[in-house]
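FW: tagging you since you asked about this chain on Friday. Here's the raw sequence from the shared folder, copied in full. Didn't touch anything.
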Amino acid sequence: MTDVTLSATDIRILQALQKDAAISNVQLAEMVGMSPSPCLRRVKQLEASGVIKRQVALLDRKKLGFGVLATIQVRLQSHTEQGAEDFARAMNDLPEILSCWAMTGRQDFLLVSVARDIESFGDFVTHQLLSMPNVRDVQSSLVLKEYKNLTAIPLPKGV
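HL: got it, structure written out here
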């Protein structure tokens, strides 16, 4: 893991893009006190360095009919490196899985999943997850109310 040195201007650009990545380069340059061409070059440098991984639209899952949000803890039967990699690769192929992390502790993986309703969530867990060859068991928790769900990384203040 390599830390990247960011200038005050880089931080202002990143703060603005984390709030609204759809902002035009002209608007961004004005917000950070630069002219458009150098600002665009800075953004491209931040992308090339991997600091900006990608730009996406954040969608409202409820408005799109996904009323269930759940965390799922998964324990595997086999704890081999290949078994874990196979499971992680399988999660990448399931659109219901929003996030997948390998974990320390009793559970091997933590997943975040969406479903249209409780019945479809139950079907997903039963027919998709529990039917996978290396899955020992799963424990799920349904989100009752969302209080905070951010994607922004905290950046230094005072710039």
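FW: The longest helix spans residues 36-48.
HL: agreed, and Helices lie at 8-19, 25-32, 36-48, 81-92, 118-129.
FW: great, closing this out.
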